[in-house]
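Tip: read the tokens left to right.
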């Protein structure tokens, strides 16, 4: 049977960030509350001419080579911070990347889980049509109310994946375990720009969903815990990954080896929560921060979306995978950034949200090729530099 999985993966984050030491100083609290308490150092902050469309296009442009574009017949855009209640954000990206018109474009939503839904749907499509490729993009901006307990867990980022037959990076294995439950741990009604969250309850439900998804994975014939070379978890903050791995180790009566998760938390610690992209930023981090050769080794992945849907699945790293990685480019993106003062961060937090239908120009601040130039007659206008 033909292998199907991730052929290429790339991420993008804006050039601005808020150091959590700066936030701690403003709030008059011990910086260790963030560094150790939630395991975070920085949160990525978008400028006014950046949104889920522009950062998605930046991430995807790195992997859509000319020879791949003609084979892409589907774009799946996963986000919970979409910019329109009707039009899929991926359609804008489709145009910006000049993809073929013979292409379906769909937006998917279920909190932080939708990136995994998109990946699994993409694998199913390529299994049917192994000569085709699917562009999967997970792009989100995590923004909470200023002064709220969740403020330090904000972030921003996009991950793009090219799903194909005979992938160069990872084969997604067919067995997975799922868990769904109707709960209210995190939600955003239409009338709100920022979500509502019950943090302690969400942590409890995350761990319960992990247990349920793992049980289903095992019952379906999934790999044993001790087969996995590494684990990647959805990381609303990296301390959540520590709790998750402790829980999964306990379920399997195994040693809680933090070395199995630390490589997958390096990038997230510097970016913050990017919702649907979070697990796949962790996956990229793991692949680019494990010194040992992972060729032929399986890794475990856990995806959680509040509300709630969860899935545990496995993927096998392919021989020659390092040739597919964009490690230098990713490390440069993270190192070549500008720290914000608290006042500048607050100004950027108040993203333009015009309701009058008049023309609103956004100043040029984005470092990438793509930007939101203006909003006019309730229409968003994007351009490539």
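Filled-in amino acids:
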């Amino acid at each position: 049977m033909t292998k199907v999985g991730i052929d290429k993966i790339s991420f993008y984050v804006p050039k601005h960030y808020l150091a959590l030491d700066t936030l701690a100083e403003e709030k008059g609290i011990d910086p260790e509350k963030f560094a150790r308490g939630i395991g975070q150092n920085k949160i990525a902050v978008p400028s006014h001419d950046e949104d889920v469309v522009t950062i998605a296009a930046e991430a995807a442009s790195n992997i859509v080579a000319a020879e791949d574009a003609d084979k892409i017949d589907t774009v799946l855009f996963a986000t919970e911070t979409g910019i329109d209640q009707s039009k899929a954000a991926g359609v804008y990206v489709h145009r910006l990347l000049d993809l073929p018109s013979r292409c379906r474009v769909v937006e998917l939503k279920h909190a932080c889980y939708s990136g995994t839904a998109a990946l699994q749907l993409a694998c199913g499509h390529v299994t049917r049509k192994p000569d085709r490729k699917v562009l999967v993009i997970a792009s989100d901006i995590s923004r909470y109310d200023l002064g709220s307990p969740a403020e330090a867990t904000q972030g921003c980022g996009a991950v793009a994946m090219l799903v194909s037959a005979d992938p160069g990076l990872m084969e997604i294995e067919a067995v997975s375990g799922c868990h769904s439950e109707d709960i209210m741990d995190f939600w955003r009604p239409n009338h709100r720009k920022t979500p509502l969250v019950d943090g302690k309850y969400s942590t409890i439900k995350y761990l319960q969903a992990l247990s349920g998804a793992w049980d289903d994975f095992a019952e379906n014939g999934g790999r044993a815990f001790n087969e996995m070379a590494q684990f990647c978890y959805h990381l609303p903050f990296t301390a959540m990954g520590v709790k998750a791995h402790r829980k999964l180790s306990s379920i399997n009566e195994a040693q809680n080896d933090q070395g199995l998760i630390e490589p997958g938390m390096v990038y997230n610690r510097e970016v913050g929560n990017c919702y649907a992209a979070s697990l796949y930023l962790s996956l990229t981090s793991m692949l680019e921060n494990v010194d040992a050769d992972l060729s032929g080794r399986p890794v475990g992945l856990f995806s959680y979306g509040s509300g709630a849907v969860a899935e545990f699945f496995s993927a096998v790293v392919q021989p020659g995978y390092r040739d597919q990685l964009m490690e230098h480019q990713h490390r440069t993106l993270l190192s070549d950034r500008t720290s914000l003062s608290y006042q500048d961060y607050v100004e950027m937090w108040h993203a333009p949200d015009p309701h009058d239908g008049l023309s609103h120009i956004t100043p040029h601040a984005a470092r990438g090729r793509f930007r939101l130039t203006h909003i006019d007659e309730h229409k968003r206008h994007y351009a490539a530099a």
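The radius of gyration is 20 Å. Residues 4-384 form a domain with the Peroxisomal Thiolase; Chain A, domain 1 fold (CATH 3.40.47.10).
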